[in-house]
Amino acid sequence: MLYNYESQNLIYKILSVEDAPRILDFYHSNRDIFEPYEPDKPDNFYSLEYQTTMAKLEYENFLRGKSARFWISRKSQPSILIGCVSFNNIVKGSFLYCTIGYKIHKSHQGIGYATEAVEYLTGRMFADGGLHRIEAYIHPDNHASIALVEKCGFQFDGIAKDYVYMKGSWTDHLRYTLISP
Hints:
alpha+beta; 8 strands
């Protein structure tokens, strides 16, 4: 996998610690729309210290082939982060799979950027990362996310019972799968 990619409208980059202020701004600006569908965050999640530590860990995990979080910007405004697509729990050997997560800034939703990013980067994970299977786990109330993965060719694969602990209880998630063409 490469550190940087470009599709028709977007740039994708693996970021490092010097980008932590931009990452923090992205998360802080979108806190209201992301949190209903995500596990509870540590108390210091919205701090520069936490985001700097996470940027360092994510960069190291990318180098180890364990995960890849590609931060997204538009070609017309490359310094502004509009989202990210992450590939986590990358497993090689006989499995060749990972899980996917994605976020798009609330001011850039409904434009097609999420579709462009997910389609392009899953293709790169199959071609450059050598993966066979990518799974998405989605909160059942997150209708926009369900529509996105279905549009990108993911198939409903079942319900992951008590998949994640969030908001004080274990929550089922829908599992969607994309297999390498």
